[in-house]
Structure formats: structure tokens, C-alpha cells
Specification:
5 copies of one chain form a homopentamer. Chain A has a 6-stranded antiparallel β-sheet, sandwiched between helices. By secondary structure, chain A is of the alpha+beta class. In chain A, helix 5 (94-115) packs across helix 6 (130-164), helix 6 runs antiparallel to helix 7 (176-208) and helix 6 (130-164) packs parallel to helix 11. Chain A contains 12 helices and 8 strands. In chain A, a hairpin with a 2-residue loop joins strand 4 (69-74) and strand 5 (77-82). The longest helix of chain A has 83 residues, at 270-352. Chains in contact: A-B, A-E, B-C, C-D, D-E. Chains C and D meet through helix 5, strand 8 and helix 11 of C and helix 2, helix 3, helix 7, helix 9 and helix 11 of D.
């Protein structure tokens, strides 16, 4: 029991990463944990969210914006994204390789498109910032993985359902294999559901808080910060120079200080700035909302399948119970018949005793007894059956 | 594993649509994906929400407002609606055909009504914008489909319940057919529930966000944008011309700039504009709320039916268990009786052995033994039964 | 598949109503759908919420405020309430008759009380508007119906529980009648729960939105609208007359325009108006909250009963399983004993064969064999029993 | 079906109460319903929340603030609390007696402490208003009752679990008594849970709404109202006297009117007043939050116990099923063996027929047949067993 | 039934604590309850949240900020933290010892780091306040405990699942030990889930309310309060000195009073103060959010495991039912065969009767009968089997 791993804590851990540039070029690199934290200015705690050496990160997807970087852990891809580069951890795993392939293609394509004249670009005229491209590629990885899993499990479900349910209901011998497959499908669906849930939660966390969605645009955040610092400085300067009798009410709220400093030469008014920010927020929100809906679809679909599997199991259970009752009822009939026969056998046994009944030589007794035994058996059987039917035990 | 389908991605996919005009006239048209995106100014991501070539759209209903268009995917109808026309995808499917029929009738009727003098119009005097008419028609399609499904499944449920439950409880032989029908009804109800849920979510997404409901009125949004641009331009102009010593506090919030530019000649004051916008928002909200309630009703009704089906299954299960117990108890009685008879048979068997018991010639032993066997059987039976009754195993 | 019923759509449908005046007098009346909509100024969609000819209204309670009227569908009573009268649909159904009886009594009593001197009025001095009286009467109808149902079903539950559970646990023969009653009680409780839920949702919809609760007071809404229109007109007039250099910031928000137009002669200041509105909102909220709590109580009580019924069913199920095990264990004991006896019978049978064993005349063999058979039976029985006890199959 | 009880409605009902003064003295008193309503100025509807003659109040706890009084129905204690006295209904029930005892002790102790010099008072220096003392005492009653119930049911649960689960799993004979106790414990836990839930809801209703928590301090509310009325009067006066050209924007919001009327002589500024109100709100909130957490603990604990009881029941069910399977499997083995023996018996029976087989005198046939029968029995048994084992029916 | 324990109530209870200083030094100390309350200025009610003598604190984690102190009860550690020291209750329990060890190490390390030159400090340059260090250490204790528990239970689950489910489905003899282990794992998971839930609730309570997160920084709160008191005093002074004709609108809201009192000599402007506060709030929120996510992970993971255990139990149940059906079906086959044999035995018995059939000397009758019996047995068996197969009772 210590503050996590000591090596990790002291910052001496070393990560093998791939550094991805906005132009799509990649370069392997090695980073010490300490350097990474100093460079990205994030708390040790935050780094743990995407640290590939911790098992925590296997189950907790993450999409977190900090001052200057985005921490991304989606679909098996772990990234630290800043405005001008992205670091991909564990670059040799399957998802990372596929991610790299698709993002580099995509970025290269974007660069080619930018070089084309406007009329030939088609539908891709809006310049999407680098960090958002990376996040979208990671989100696509995530959806693709879950979609694939869902597809495969849905197929298995389909096959299973077709096997278990024939045209006239639940298959008659429910084999152990069917039940085992049912159990495995259920486990997979529970996993799928909880993963989709976790990713949804991570995306919702960004969407819920008011201005967070725009925080994904770390390049804009950095710009804003610089602009704000400059403006604040200017305002303070202005305040110091204002004569004391100026109406104090001027500074209505900190967001309006720009109007004071807005000068003729500036290229962007407050109104334009707000419009631009709103547009950026909307861009982020639309992106996240789309993928949120995708994960939502995976989640609700796997939930539906899981529900239907549980219902199927319940149906199997009731069907088995109903069959068991039928078997038991038939056994009961046989027990009744066997009981009647046993009574008959008792009579024959009695006459088979080596004791003197004085009837030994009577032929009529022999045939009479035989007939009586047969009749008796039928009668006992009949009486018992009708009694059970009256008692509604047999139908 | 690629960014979706390559053909789709490059914008070369082609859609067969029907173009619907506000006057109710329709015209088949063919559109390239690229042209559609350029025309409607929506992101590729958004188009995927209603793209009929993707399986995603089968399960995810959609009602999304973007700058200039509405993306509608409700009740099997996929539409892109803008202020002056609507594009209907996959126009040959059943729902699309029925949708077209009803919307064209409706629009034609509206045109006729507009031509009538006011006193004859009846209750349809409020002019509803074209896009809202289309959305309502799609919503009606959606409710009608789910209502029909619910109706049919409710009928099946009714028949089934009447079959399974007689006047004296659960039907005695629960046949495999009943259980199979129960299973199928449950599957249908789960589907119905999840569809109603999905549509509810799509409508709620529009209703929840504050000003979204009004966004459905794309014609108004376009108008507003133009008006706003003009006003912003005017204000900037005004600001530039204001002398520097004017109180900066004047511009309290961007929404009030109109008061500055409000001039005598303008036909609409700020107050009137707000009232009108509020009215429009209310119109959209009332429409959506009504259909939301309809889907809510379908949802809660199918949930109730599903619950009652699950309760019925549980009741069947308990009823089967209770019957099985009765069968088992009767079998136990028979086992006891058979055991007693077997003891008797053992005695007769013993006397039937070809060994010398020296009693061979005793008639009294014969009859005595017979009586004893019968008595013994009854006694053993009685003793065992009363013991089981004391042990509360039999009643 | 059409826009609902054509007759309904074209506004030619005719409703038989009873018109209720604020003084408690009633008068049967017939209304065409078109006239009703023109008179009350509501959309066709809204009318469908309370239209008695639609099955939708059976399951969806409604309490909706529109411009000038309240649409009420609670406890089997369908009403359109405006400031000076109420229209009751389907006046001949049981709930409508009881509703009419109680509301007319109540209104008459209020009129009598108003005529009394103040000291004699007792606790009813606050003048409650007519529309609120009607809504409360409908809410009382709703609570009374559900309370009655809950009461009856709780009694049935009580009787059933007492029947099923004796002093020493679950009754021994669980009869099919008990299970059937259990099933029926569960169905009733599910219905009760979903109805209380639906009414709760309808009330909450009014309470949740901020200023909606006061919207119930349609008479006040009408008053307000007139006042507001007058004020708006006055303000616009004032603005037009203001010299251009007046500080534009004066008009801080549309709600404050009254202060500008407040003149000495007016009998109500802004502050008084706000206080009065707050009081009215509170009056509506307190009314709704009380009935909300009543329905909440019904809901949670029926939920609790339903839970306890499901728990009871589960208990019955486990109890049956436990008894079945006891029966099976006893059958096993009997099977063991029967098996032992069968072995003995086999031996006797062997000696009964008409084959020569050379022991035919030995008396000692006869008695020896008999003893050995009996001993053998006991031994086999004992060995098998102790083995099963060691295997923990029998106790 | 009437508006509740007629006697109650007409206000003629009479309550026996105990009147509790802030100094801890009590005095029995009798009140007519009408007088109570006139005195406390609450609606008939609100009185019903705590009216001891209605069964509704058994299940619906209540903590409601009205203008001048608090309506309290917690832990079996029904109170109307105003700033200077409290009325306790049904003073002879157990909870009421215990409540009176503790509250009078507490109030007396507080009076004693107040008379002590400051250094000796210890930790009770903050003067808590009378109404809050009463509410806290009622809340303590509520927690104490539920805590006690939880404690007792937890003990029963503990004993039961120890009885049902031995060191090697579920006890072997699950007796009906265990199951009955399990059922009863579950019922108690469901009740406990729903009561804690109801009280939580009542407290949350006060805490959720923004300024409600402070409303508990009815003495402060009364003070405020008087102060506000005075201020409003003053402001109106001031407005009337202001010259028309004063900037209308002065009256920014109704809450700030005090600044206008704040005069030198006043002992409390606006800032101080806000701070004091905030402190009072905090005092109420902290009190309610603490008890909310207590009820929350009871709720979650009883939920946990209920869950564990349900899990236990499920475990018992599976355990019974598993045992039944073992019993059935053993029965199957016996059936196989019995079948083999029956075949043997058939052979002996055949040779026992009084028909001529010409082998009657062969000794070797006798012993041969006997051996063959025994061998045959073993063989049949063995073959059937190994077949069932191959079919995985027996292990 | 009293106000809790009398000793506790009167403030005479004594606690053994360890006092922890910001420099990491510790010192055992003894505190009377009364002194503790006077020193920390908290209500008796709040102290009960962490009072180690109450059982309540076992199950209710707590993280509550009061005026000057933090009340912490997390992971088995109970603390009162103020700006310059922390009191640890029950310092000898396991968690307390481990907590002390890690926090003292951590604080000492921080002191060492502070003495290092800046370039050597690595990633720990932000000065974290003492109280936050303590809270984080307690949170780490909590996560470590739950993580460990989860790890252990997950391992047990793994072993169990591997034991219960072989390659071909559920293990054939489900032993009582497996079921018992399953039951115990479920109990542990329920506990784990409810604990994680409780801690999550405690953290969320701090995060939900708007400015609460910053309240954790009690040192800052104390600073703020002093600053505010000074500012308020200054403002009141300023107001008193303002001439009456100053625009009253100046004082827009109590939060802006600083602008009035902001003088040249002040080192921090309003803007800087807001920025600093925002940064502090963010520091607290990021810390809490990280641990919230950790507990969330534990919670959802244990929920997933619990779900999978319940699914496994359900699978076992269905598997047992399916096996029982197979056993029953085989028993039925045997019953049929035994019945056929019994019929045969009856025939042999009949011929074994010591009655005269006149066929005694016919050898052909002997062999004929034998053949007929065998054939008859086979026939009866076959007919019954095919009938049951036609009835779908056997497959």
C-alpha cells in the first residue's frame, strides 16, 4: 500500500510513444513521465487517466480537456493531444496501428484537399482543427470497435435464437451447448453495454458542463488565454488612468471589459468574437453529439439484445418447467397403471403360494381369477385416473 | 475498417429522392451526395443520420435542426427539409408512399383553404410553415405506425391472455404453442418499447435545449440570421460613429442592440419581435409535446403490457410448480401404496418358493396369510401416509 | 391510414356536453367540433387530448393550459374550462354524474357562503377562482377513484395474504384459486400504478415549468394579456415620443416597462402586482402539490403492494420448491425400500421357479431364506440410505 | 363519495391537543377544526396533511411550511408549529408521549443553559429558534423509530442468515419456518424502505426549492413580512415623491428597494441582512441535511438488506434445485436397478409358471438360471448406467 | 430513548486523537468533546458524522466542509481538518496507521521538495494546501481499500467462474460448495457496490453545489471571510459618506462592492481575485472528479460483476432445470419399460397360480407364453414410447 507505483510516482517511468504532427507525419519518440508532465502541464493524477501501465485505464475511457492538452483514452487508443502534435501511447497494439493508419491517411487527404482549388474540394471546406481531427479519429475507432463487437454478437444471438426456437417453440432437447452459448452471449452483451455506457459517460461529462465542449479546441483555448491576458492588462491600465469620478458602474461584468478596450484598429468586435466562439462550441458539440448517439445506439441495442436474451432464458425456463410437468403427469399415469398391475400381481402371487386354498383343481377359478385380475387392474386404473382428473392433477 | 464506405465518403454516392414543394407538388430527382451536402450545408456526419444506405438509420430515429435544414428520420420516412422544399429518400418504400399521399393531400387542402374566404376556413386559420407541416406529417407517420403495432400486439396479447387464463386460473395444459406465442409477444413489445423510447429521446433532445424548439422553423432561422447580420452591421457602424465619451455601459447585452437601431420607420419593435418569437417557439413546442405524449403513451402502454406478460409468465411458472408439486405428492401416495403392495408380494413370493415350509396343506394358513397380506398392505400404507402428513409433506 | 377520423378532421363531429356556470347552474348543450375550436381558440391537436371519441384519452390524463382555456381529463371527467364556464363531455358516464353532483353542490355552497356575513363564513374566506374550483373537483374525482380502487385492492390483497400465509408459513395446498387471485391482484396493482403515474406526470408537467402553475388561472391570464397589450402600446407610444438622445439603456428588460408607464392614478404598483402574481402562483402550486402528493401516495402504496405481491409469489415459489424437494426425498427413500424389496422378491421368485434346486424338501432352507430375505432387504435399505446421507442427498 | 367527511368539511371536528410553549411548559387543549384553521391561516387541504383522523396521514410524512406555521408529521408525531407555540395532536400515543418527554427536557435544559454565564454553556451558545427545536425533536423521533426498527430487523436478519447458511452452505433441510421468517423479514424491510423513502421525499421537498429551507423559521418569515410591508410602503411613498425626470433605471429589481430607503438611523444594512438570512438558511439546511443523511442511511441499509435477502432467497432456490437434481439422479439410478431386477423377476416368474418347460428336473438349469439372472441384472444395470453417463444425464 | 448517549450529549466524552501538523509531524493528544466543538465551532450534529463511538459512522462516509474545518470520514479514516492541523480519531486502527504513514511521508517529501531549487522539483511545483493534501490522502486510502477489495473479489469470481463453467458449459455436479462460494461473492459485491455508492454520494454532494468544491480549501475560506468583513466595513463607511444625490444604481450587487473600494495601493484587482478563486475551485474539482471517477469505476465494475454473478446463477438454474428434465425423461422411459415388464410379470404370475388351467402339461404353451410375454413387453414399451414422442413429451 503506497501512493501507486513508486517508479511512476517519482516520474522516472518511461513511455514509448509515436508523435503525430498535424501534417500526418509520425515519428517514434520516448518520453520520461516527468518530462511529459512538465511539457503538458498536467497533474500526475490526470496522467493516470491515460497511463497505459495502469490497469485502471483498461476499463475507464477518458476524454478530458486540461489547460493546454486533451487526454484521450477511447477505443483502445491512448493519446495526449495538444494544439500542434499528439502523442500516441503503446503504438504497437492493434487499435493503435489501425488508428495511426486511418488518421495519417485522413490528415494527408486533408492536406491534399487544401492544396486543391475551392471548387474541387467538395463538402470539406470548413477547416477542422488538428486536435478535433484526432479526437474524431479516436471516436471513430471507438465506435468501429463497439459496432463490430455488436455486429458479431448480434449474429451469434441470431444463430442461437434460430437454433433454440424452432417453428413450434423452444427446441425440444435444450442441449447444454445451447445454454452455454446463451450464457456466453449474455456475458459479451453485458460487457458491451458497460463499455458503451462508460464511453457515453465520458462524452456526456464534456457535453454537460456549459462551456466544456469548446475546451476540446485546445488551440483556441490557448489563443483565448493570450488574448484575455492582454485585455486584462489593458483594462487594468485603463482603470488606473480613469479619473476617480468616472461612473463605477461601467465595469458591469468581467466579460464586457473588451468593449472598453475595443479600438478602431481591431479586426474583431466583441459581437464577432462571441459569434465565432459560439460556432466553435457548436462544431465540438455536433461532433460529440453524433458519436454520443452512435454509442447510445450501441448501448440501447446491446441492452435490447440482453433483455431479449434474458427473456429467452426465462422462456426456456418456463418451457422446461412445462415439459417437466408433462413428463411428471405421464409418469403419474404410469405409476397408477403400475400400481394397478401390482395389485393384480399380488393376487396372482397369493394364488401362487404353496399353501392349500382347496381351489387348486378348479379350472373356472383359474380363468375367473385371471379375468377378475385384468378387470380389476383396469378398474383401479380408471378410478384413480378419474379421481386425479377430478382433482385437476391430470387433465 | 475504414472511415465508413469509401464511395460514401468521397461524396460520389447517388440518392434517388422525391422533391416536395410547399404547394404539394412532387417531382422525382436524383442527387449526388456531394451536391446534397453543398446545397444543404451540413456536415457528412449529419447526413449519415438519415442516409438510407446505412443500417444505423434503421434503429436511430432523428429530428435534428441544422443551420438551414431539418434532418428527419421518423416512422420509416427519411427527409431533408428546407424552407422551400423537402427531399424524401427511398420514395418507393411503404411508409414513404403513404407519407407522400397524406402530405400532398394535406398541402393541397391547405392551399384550397387559403383560397377560401375567412369565414369558411373553420379552425385552420393559423398559417403553419411548410417545414412544420412536413415534420408533423412525419410524426403522424411515426405515431400511426407505432399505434398500429401496439394495437395489433395488444390484440394478440388479449387473445393470448384469454387463452392462457381460464375462469379458474391458468389453463391446465399450458401448451408449447401458448408459451411460444407469449415469447413472441414479449419480443414484439420489447421492440415497440425501444422504438418509442428512441423517438421520445429524439423529440426530447429538441425540446430540452432552450431555444431549439424554434430551430425547427428553418424559414424563420434564415430570416433571423439575415436580420441579425443587418442589425450587427448597423450597430458596428453606429459604434464607430459614436463619440468616444459616450457611456460604454449602453451596450448592455448583444440582444439589445436592436433598440439602438430601432428607428421610427421600422414596422416591428423589439417587444413585438420577442412576442412573435415566443409564439413561434410555443407553436413548435406544443406540436412536439403533443407527439411526445403520444409516443410516451405508446411507450408506457407497451411497458405495461410487457410487465403484465412477464407477470403472466411468472404466474405460469408458479402455477406449473404448484401443479408439479400436486403430481409429485400423488406419485408419493402411489409410491407408498406400491411399496406396501410390494411387501405383500414379497410375502406371497416367499410362500411361493419351492421350499418346504411344512404349512403346505394348511387351508387356514392360506386364507390367514391372504388376509394378513391385505391388512398389512393397508396398515403399512396408512402408517406411512400419516407419518408423511405429520411431517407436513403430504396434506 | 389517414389524418385520424375524417369526420373529426373536418370539424363536423358533434359533442354532447353540459355547460357549467360559475354559479353552479348547468345546461345541456351540443357543440360542433369546429365551433368549439373557434370559441376556445385551441389547435385540433389539443382538442384530441380530451376528445371522448378517441381511445387515446382513456389512458392519457391531461391537465393542459392553453391561451384562454384549460383542458382537463382526470378521473374519467373530460372538461374544457374557460374563465366563465366549463364544458363537460360525456355527461352521462358515472364519473361525470358524480362530478357534476359534487361541483354543483360545492359552487352553490360557495355562493351561499358569500352571501353570509364575514364572521360566519369560517375557513373559506379566500375567494378561489371558478376554474380552480373545477380543476380541484376533477382532481378530487381522480383521487377518489384511485383511492377507492387502492382501498378495494388492498383489502383483496389482505384477504389473499391471510389465506395464503397461515401461522406456520405458506399455506400447504396452494390452490389454483389462490394463484389466480394473486395474478388478478397483481394486474390491478400494475394498472393502478400506471394510472397514478400518468396523472402524476400530467400534474408535474404543469408544476415543473416555471410559470405554468399560474397558467391554470385562465381568468388571470386573460386579464394579464389585456393589461400587457395596453402597457406595450403605451410604452411604444412613450418611446416614439422620447427625444433621440435619451439613454437607450433605460429599457433594461421588457418586464420593467411598467415602471415607466406607472402613473399616479394607477391603483396597483409593480411591486403589488408581482406580490399578487406570486400569491396566485402559490395558490395553484399548493393545490397541485397537495393532489400530487395524494397521487404519489397512491402510486407508492400500490408499488409497495405490488412489490409485496411479487415477493409473496417468490416466497410461494421457493416454498413449493422446498416442499417438492421433501416429497422427492421421501420418494427416494421409498424407491430405496422398494428396490430392496424387489431384490428380495427376485430371490423368492428364483426359488419359485419350477426348476430343481435339490433343496425342495429342506424346511430349514425355507425359514433360513425367508429370514435372509428380510435381513437382506433391511441391510440393502440401510446401506443405501446411509450412503445417500453421506452424499448429503438425504438428511 | 363526498368531499371527504362532512363533519370534517364543515369545520366542526374537534381535536384534543397539547399546547407546547417555548419555555417547555405544556397544557392540554381542545380545538375546533374551524378555529384551528382561522388561527393558523392554512387551507383545509393543508390541514388534511396532519389531520390524525385521516388514514392518509399514516403513510405520508409531512414537513410543510405555510405562511405562519409549520405542519409536521414525522415519526408518528403530528404537530402544528408556529413561532410561539406548538400544537401536538393525539398526545396519548406512544410516540407523542416520548416526544413530549424529550422536547420538554430539552427546552428546560436550554432555558437553564441560557441562565448560566457564557463560559459554562459549553457548545450550545447559538440560539436555535423554538420552531427549529421542535422540528429537530420530531426528526429525532423519526430517526430513532426507524433506527430501532432497522436494528431489530437487522438482528432478525442476522439470526436468520446464520440459521439458513451453515459452514458448508445453505442448511440442508430448509424448513418452512425459515422460509416464513425470510418472508416476514422481507416484508418488514420493504416497509422500512418505503417509510424512509417517504420521509426523505418530505425533507428533500423542503431542501430542493431554493429559499424553502429558511421557510422553516416561521418566526423569521413573520418578521420579514412585516419588514417588507413597511419597506414597500416607504418605497411607494418615495416613488410618488420622486420628480418625473429621475432616471427610471434606478429601481433595478424589487429586492434592492431597501438601498433607496436605507437611512442612517437603521441598525441593519442590506448586506448584513443578506448575511443573516444566508446564515439562517444554512442553519436550516445543515439540520435537514443531517437528518436527510440519517434517513438516507436507513434507506440504503434496508435496501441492502432487502437485496441480500432476495439474493439469499435466490440462492436457496438454486440450492433446492441442485439438491432436487441430486435426488432425481439417485432415483434414476434406483429406477435403472429396479428395472434390471424386474427383468430378472420376469424370468423367474416365467420359470414359475405352471406350464411344462421339460426342464423341470434339471438342477444345472436352476443354478444356471439363477446365475444368469444375477449376471443379467448387473449387466442391464451397468449398460444403462454407462449409457446415461455417456448422455451426460448422470455423472 | 434519549437524545443519543447522555455522556456524548453533555460533551464530556473524550477522544484519543493524533494531531497532524502541516510539516508532517504528529503528536498524540486527548480531547474532550466539548473542547473540540468549541475549537472547531461545529454543531454537535456535525460532529456525530465522524464520531468514532457511533455505529452510524461505520456505514456513512462523509466529506463535509463547515466554516473553518473539514469533516472527513473516508476509507476507515476519521479526521477533523482545519487550515493548520488535522485531528485523526482512533489512530490505532489499521487504516489509520497506514494513513498516517503515507501522509507523513508525503508531507515530509513535499517539505524536502520545497527546499530544492526549482529546476530539480519536477512535476510538483504547484503548492497544494495542507487540507487538500490530507483530503487526498484520505481519498487514496478509500480508493486503495475498495480497489483491493474489488481485486480480491474479482479473483475469487474468476476462480469460481472457471470452476463452475467447464469447456462444455456449466459443471455437471454443481456442488453445494460452488453455490456457497457464489452466494458469498455476491454478498461481498453487494457490500462493495453500496460502499462505493455511499462514497460517490458524499463526493457528489460537495461537487454538485455550486461553490462548494472550493469550500474544501478551509484556509482560503478563512482568508476570504476576513477580507470580506473588511470590504463590507469599508463599503458601509463609503456609503455613509456618499452624498445623497449619488446614483443609487451604483451598488449593483454585493459582489461588486470591491470595485468601489479598489484603491491604487491594493495588490489584487477584482479580476485577479475571480481568476484565483476559479483556479482554486478548479483544483478542488479536478481532485474530487478524479477520485469520483475511481469510485465510479469500482462501483460500475462491482455492479458488472454482480450482474454477471446473477446471470451465472440464472444460468445454473436453467441448466439444472434442463438436466432435471433429462433425468425425468429417462425415468419416464424406464417407467414405461418397467410397466411393460410388470404386465409380463402379471402374466407369468397368473400362470404361476396354483389353480388349474388345464394347460399344465403343454410345452408349446410354455414357450409360446414366454415368447408372447417378451414380445408383449417390447410392443407395450414401443407403443407407449411412440405415443409419448407423438405427444412431444419425449424426443
Amino acid at each position: 500500500f503506497r501512493y501507486e507505483n513508486q517508479a511512476t510516482y517519482s516520474g522516472k517511468a518511461v513511455y514509448n510513444c509515436i508523435r503525430l504532427e498535424p501534417d500526418g507525419s509520425t515519428r517514434p519518440t520516448t518520453m520520461r513521465r516527468r518530462d511529459l508532465m512538465r511539457m503538458t502541464n498536467i497533474a500526475p493524477r490526470d496522467l493516470r487517466r491515460i497511463d497505459p501501465t495502469l490497469t485502471l485505464t483498461r476499463t475507464s475511457p477518458c476524454l478530458t480537456a486540461r489547460e493546454d492538452v486533451l487526454l484521450v483514452n477511447l477505443g483502445g487508443v491512448r493519446l495526449v493531444v495538444s494544439e500542434d502534435h499528439a502523442l500516441l501511447f503503446e503504438p504497437t497494439t492493434g487499435p493503435s496501428v489501425r488508428f495511426l493508419e486511418s488518421i495519417t491517411q485522413r490528415l494527408a487527404q486533408l492536406r491534399r484537399l487544401e492544396r486543391l482549388p475551392a471548387y474541387a474540394r467538395g463538402d470539406l471546406t470548413v477547416p477542422v482543427p488538428f486536435e478535433l481531427e484526432v479526437v474524431e479519429a479516436a471516436l471513430i475507432m471507438g465506435t468501429a470497435r463497439l459496432d463490430n463487437k455488436l455486429l458479431r454478437v448480434a449474429e451469434r444471438t441470431d444463430v442461437l435464437v434460430r437454433k433454440i426456437t424452432g417453428p413450434s417453440g423452444i427446441a425440444n432437447p435444450i442441449t447444454a451447448e445451447m445454454l452455454e452459448e446463451l450464457r456466453r452471449v449474455k456475458i459479451q452483451l453485458v460487457q458491451l453495454e458497460s463499455r458503451a455506457e462508460a464511453i457515453k459517460a465520458a462524452i456526456l461529462e464534456v457535453l454537460d458542463e456549459d462551456e466544456d465542449a469548446r475546451e476540446l479546441l485546445v488551440s483556441k483555448t490557448v489563443e483565448d488565454r493570450k488574448r484575455k491576458e492582454a485585455a486584462a492588462a489593458a483594462m487594468i491600465e485603463a482603470l488606473r488612468n480613469t479619473p476617480v469620478d468616472a461612473p463605477a458602474g461601467v465595469v458591469l461584468s468581467p466579460n464586457l471589459e473588451i468593449t472598453v478596450t475595443a479600438e478602431e484598429g481591431e479586426e474583431e468586435t466583441e459581437q464577432e468574437r462571441l459569434d465565432r466562439m459560439e460556432g466553435e462550441t457548436e462544431m465540438c458539440e455536433e461532433l460529440l453529439e453524433y458519436y454520443l448517439q452512435r454509442f447510445e445506439t450501441v448501448h440501447s441495442e446491446s441492452e435490447r439484445l440482453l433483455d431479449s436474451m434474458r427473456d429467452l432464458e426465462e422462456s426456456i425456463s418456463v418451457s422446461l418447467a412445462s415439459r417437466r410437468l408433462a413428463v411428471n403427469q405421464l409418469e403419474l399415469r404410469l405409476s397408477i397403471a403400475t400400481f394397478a398391475v401390482a395389485i393384480g400381481a399380488l393376487v396372482t402371487g397369493a394364488f401362487g403360494m404353496n399353501l392349500r386354498s382347496t381351489l387348486e383343481m378348479s379350472v373356472s377359478w383359474f380363468y375367473g381369477t385371471c379375468c377378475l385380475i385384468v378387470l380389476g387392474c383396469f378398474l383401479i386404473n380408471r378410478l384413480l385416473l378419474s379421481w386425479t382428473q377430478k382433482m385437476k392433477i391430470l387433465s
